[in-house]
User: Which sequence fits this backbone?
């Protein structure tokens, strides 16, 4: 029952009974995950082209939200440049493919590497900044990247948008969907492995108390740079893939609204959980497509939901699902279902 | 490049700089009292602009702009106090694990909320109230009347703000809270009331900038985005938590932008600020007046 994923020292207590995807029996859990993935992979058989496109975009956001959850949720480095790294990856890959004639898959890999390097650099520069200054510095970095991309129109075609060669020679979204689904699954799976390794403990230790972590022998400098590079690299890969799927890049995708969207997804789903960003990204993306008729009112509702979650129920949708599942299993009377709300004293 | 033109641009830079000061002083004031950054500052600026536009085009008429201004500013201030009371006060009531993270997430959500609410209510259109003041001749230089009013208004508000903070009992209470919350509490200062008023005042400064600039720039849902950028640039340049820093930084930024666009190229107008920011961070990482180490 002692699940290493449970952040023992984080804000969520590990004592509560867990949902089936996290509960005891590892075999049953992996069977559930496999069944879920299989069902998701079979969706193109029953859904039309457009819903599949929406789900593909949702997978893209799953990758972004999960990797941001790694750096901001688990490691506590509240970076506001995640969308910019996706943009860096996308533009680097597109320019390599267009100007240097690189094959698209190689270009995507290079895009990811570029974003990883940029993230590593930013992590190194902002090492000693904490909290507010880190947020300000990463935000300023993201804004500068966006301005440079829109100004250097000789190279990036600026706000006109850059037409990008497609990854696959097909107009059907289905192979793209399968690819994005695989990538999203790989990201979440990889993060799960990372978080239950020793590295995962080091990262959470940095979040909980950096000084104590250092005193306990965690090389905080190395792991902060590592987590910046890692999450930026993932975001860059996702951005590059997405660019070669949509076929058009523009600096508008690097506006701060995009970062706000990622934050909304992670908070709505549940910070510092593996399933949270997945749920959040899929719910937000699918709901905003389904409710397209309501225009900007959707974003108003999402923002209100996030504020409400921060204010009264920080575990988010993932915590809510877990609580409901526990109640279903144990009946209303049994079980400490409010366990998530126990937080560290200040 | 003749001297008249250069003076004119420098003057225009100072006029805009004074408005930037309002934003920056608001951000740094809220930071010093509540130790949080209000990311939704630009949205309060935007709301101030809408309030002023509605007041002078629909209700009061353009000739009574001087009635509309205080109303718009007070309205934004009251909205800020409500936001603080409902969303931010629980930060200090215990139970929230990381204050800065909570404040960041909530205020970023507020930007999304207000921006999209503006689109829902007023549509994505750009509004601009008519100029209400005739052009002013300032020595040899003609200045757009509304711009001049905005400049005077900003200077007057900054003066009033400085007077309140430096010379009144209320200002003394605020400064004591900024220095040491526990100490202020034990001296009998009602912390939650000071927090609420400070947030309202800080946000009202942004609203004032928006209301003053309504006839100069356009009023639209994203109009706050750029002013948030400027505000934060000034904060980093001047040093977080320093009022002098924000005022000097604001004027400096206005000057650099204005002179940069005439001497180098106007296309990169919004990049000069970042250039200045990088330069100052490289030379003096705490900003010009930042007194603390870079650990918020």
Assistant:
């Amino acid at each position: 029952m002692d699940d290493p994923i449970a952040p023992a020292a984080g804000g969520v207590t590990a004592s509560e009974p867990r949902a089936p995807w996290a509960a005891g029996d590892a075999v049953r859990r992996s069977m559930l995950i496999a069944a879920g993935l299989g069902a998701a992979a079979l969706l193109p058989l029953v859904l039309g082209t457009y819903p599949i496109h929406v789900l593909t975009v949702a997978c893209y956001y799953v990758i972004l939200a999960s990797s941001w959850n790694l750096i901001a949720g688990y490691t506590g480095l509240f970076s506001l440049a995640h969308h910019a790294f996706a943009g860096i990856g996308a533009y680097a890959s597109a320019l390599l493919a267009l100007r240097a004639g690189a094959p698209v898959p190689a270009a995507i890999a290079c895009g990811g590497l570029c974003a990883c390097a940029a993230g590593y650099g930013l992590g190194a520069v902002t090492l000693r900044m904490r909290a507010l200054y880190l947020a300000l510095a990463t935000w300023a970095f993201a804004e500068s990247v966006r301005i440079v991309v829109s100004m250097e129109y000789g190279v990036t075609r600026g706000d006109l948008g850059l037409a990008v060669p497609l990854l696959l020679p097909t107009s059907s979204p289905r192979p793209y969907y399968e690819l994005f689904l695989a990538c999203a699954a790989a990201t979440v799976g990889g993060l799960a492995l990372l978080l239950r390794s020793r590295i995962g403990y080091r990262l959470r230790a940095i979040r909980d108390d950096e000084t104590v972590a250092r005193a306990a022998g965690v090389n905080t400098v190395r792991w902060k740079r590592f987590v910046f590079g890692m999450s930026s690299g993932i975001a860059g890969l996702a951005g590059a893939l997405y660019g070669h799927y949509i076929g058009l890049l523009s600096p508008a995708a690097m506006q701060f609204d995009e970062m706000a969207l990622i934050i909304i997804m992670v908070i709505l789903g549940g910070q510092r959980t593996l399933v949270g960003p997945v749920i959040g990204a899929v719910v937000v993306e699918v709901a905003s497509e389904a409710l397209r008729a309501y225009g900007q009112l959707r974003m108003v509702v999402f923002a209100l939901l996030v504020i409400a979650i921060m204010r009264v129920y920080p575990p988010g949708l993932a915590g809510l699902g877990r609580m409901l599942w526990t109640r279903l299993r144990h009946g209303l009377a049994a079980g400490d279902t409010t366990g998530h709300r126990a937080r560290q004293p200040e | 490049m003749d001297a008249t033109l250069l003076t004119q641009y420098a003057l225009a830079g100072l006029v805009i700089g004074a408005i930037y000061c309002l934003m920056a002083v608001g951000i740094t004031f809220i930071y010093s009292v509540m130790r949080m950054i209000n990311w939704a500052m630009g949205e309060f600026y935007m709301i101030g602009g809408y309030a002023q536009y509605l007041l002078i085009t629909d209700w009061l008429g353009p000739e009574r702009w001087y009635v509309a201004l205080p109303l718009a500013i007070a309205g934004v201030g009251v909205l800020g106090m409500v936001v603080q009371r409902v969303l931010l006060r629980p930060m200090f009531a215990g139970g929230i694990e990381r204050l800065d993270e909570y404040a960041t997430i909530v205020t970023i959500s507020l930007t999304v909320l207000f921006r999209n609410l503006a689109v829902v209510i007023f549509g994505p259109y750009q509004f601009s109230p008519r100029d209400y003041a005739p052009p002013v001749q300032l020595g040899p230089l003609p200045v757009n009347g509304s711009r001049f009013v905005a400049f005077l208004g900003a200077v007057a508000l900054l003066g009033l703000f400085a007077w309140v903070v430096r010379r009144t009992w209320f200002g003394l209470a605020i400064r004591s809270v900024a220095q040491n919350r526990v100490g202020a509490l034990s001296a009998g200062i009602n912390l939650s009331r000071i927090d609420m008023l400070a947030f309202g005042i800080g946000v009202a400064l942004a609203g004032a900038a928006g209301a003053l600039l309504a006839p100069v720039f356009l009023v639209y849902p994203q109009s706050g985005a750029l002013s948030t950028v400027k505000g934060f640039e000034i904060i980093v340049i001047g040093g977080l938590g320093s009022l002098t820093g924000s005022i000097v930084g604001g004027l400096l930024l206005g000057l650099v932008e204005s002179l940069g666009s005439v001497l180098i190229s106007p296309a990169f107008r919004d990049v000069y600020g970042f250039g200045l920011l990088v330069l100052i961070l490289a030379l003096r990482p705490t900003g010009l007046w930042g007194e603390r180490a870079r650990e918020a």
Summary: The longest strand of chain B covers residues 136-138.
